[in-house]
C-alpha cells in the first residue's frame, strides 16, 4: 500500500503539534478538545492522518486557534492576535502621543502673564 500523505500533511501535523505544546495539553486533553480519539493525535502530529474538520473547528471555538494557521501556517496561531508589526506601529503611535502630552503638560506649567 502506497503512503498518500504529503509534505502538506507533515506541515499541518507539525503545526497541530505546536498548538498542543503551546496550549500545554497532553494528547488526551487535545483529543477531548478536538473530539477525536486520543490515538489519532500522534498520527495527525506525524502527518500520517488528515486533520479532521471538526478538530479544526473545535480548536477555533474552544481555544481561539486560527484555522488559517493550522492549515497554511499563515496568520497567527491564536486568532486575532496582533502581529509584531502591528504592535510596533501601536507603540510608535503611543510614543508620539506621550510626546504631545509632555509638551501640553509643559505648556500648562508655564505661568500665564496678565
TrEMBL record:
It comes from the Bacteria. Gene3D superfamilies: lambda repressor-like DNA-binding domains. It comes from Pedobacter lusitanus. One of its GO terms (molecular function) is DNA binding. This is HTH cro/C1-type domain-containing protein. InterPro entries: Cro/C1-type_HTH, Lambda_DNA-bd_dom_sf. Pfam families: HTH_19. Residues 20-70 form the HTH cro/C1-type domain.
Amino acid at each position: 500500500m502506497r503512503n498518500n500523505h504529503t509534505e502538506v500533511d507533515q506541515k499541518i501535523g507539525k503545526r497541530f503539534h505546536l498548538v498542543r505544546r503551546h496550549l500545554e495539553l497532553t494528547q488526551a486533553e487535545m483529543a477531548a478538545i478536538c473530539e477525536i480519539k486520543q490515538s489519532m493525535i500522534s498520527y495527525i502530529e506525524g502527518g500520517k492522518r488528515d486533520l479532521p474538520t471538526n478538530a479544526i473547528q473545535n480548536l477555533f471555538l474552544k481555544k481561539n486557534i486560527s484555522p488559517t494557521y493550522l492549515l497554511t501556517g499563515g496568520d497567527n496561531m491564536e486568532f486575532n492576535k496582533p502581529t509584531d508589526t502591528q504592535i510596533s506601529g501601536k507603540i510608535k503611535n503611543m510614543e508620539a502621543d506621550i510626546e504631545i502630552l509632555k509638551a501640553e503638560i509643559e505648556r500648562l506649567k508655564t505661568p500665564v502673564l496678565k
